[in-house]
Amino acid sequence: MSSIAENRDDLYQAIKMAFDKILEDYSSIPEEYSRITGIEGNVKGTKISVGDTLAYLIGWGRLVLKWHNLKSNGHNIDFPETGYKWSELGRLAQNFQLQRRNWSYSDLIVEFKLTTADILLLVKSLDNQSLYGDSWYKKYSLGRMIQFNTYSPMKNMRAKVRRFKRDNQID
């Protein structure tokens, strides 16, 4: 599979594989490390915690599900989210983190699992035409929008989480 999924099965496998890998990393981090800042944030010059990376991934996953739900019910979508422009994704990331700031690490992991399961169910429920046949947002298909906002962030955050683990000598 290339890094860009072109059909439902490839998209499903890409998300599942990225999820399984990052979940293994999250599962190896003791809770007492979960709120230590030391990971490069989404806003230049900021540092975030492992818990914040989970909140970020949950936020994007839930947003993708919201987009699909709105569009499926004939509603307009205020991309990327009401009150935010595409040029303000760092601020949106900080909002995702703020929304879940007081969640325990174990609750974040549970929510990440549930969110990813919902994304995978959505992917499985759609056919290739629905995912890749038509433009869904500007020139992008629904499949590409799902990949951009689930698989890609997981892959990116995994590199940051693994660096945090190395820096803190966590096996």
| H/E element sequence | HEEHHHHHH
Total beta strand runs: 2
Radius of gyration: 16 Å
Which stretches of 5+ consecutive residues score pLDDT under 50? none
Describe the structure.
The chain has one domain: dinb family like domain (Four Helix Bundle (Hemerythrin (Met), subunit A), Up-down Bundle). The longest helix is centred in the middle third of the chain and has 23 residues, at 50-72. α2 crosses α3 (89-99), α2 packs antiparallel against α6 (142-149) and α2 (50-72) packs antiparallel against α7 (151-167). The protein is 62% helix and 2% strand. It has helices spanning 8-27, 50-72, 89-99, 105-125, 128-133, 142-149, 151-167; strands at 39-40, 47-48.
Write the layout of secondary structure elements.
Elements: H1 8-27, E1 39-40, E2 47-48, H2 50-72, H3 89-99, H4 105-125, H5 128-133, H6 142-149, H7 151-167
Key traits:
single chain; about 170 residues; mainly alpha; Four Helix Bundle (Hemerythrin (Met), subunit A)
Explain briefly what this protein structure is.
The protein is mainly alpha-helical. It has helices spanning 8-27, 50-72, 89-99, 105-125, 128-133, 142-149, 151-167, and strands at residues 39-40, 47-48. The longest helix has 23 residues, at 50-72.
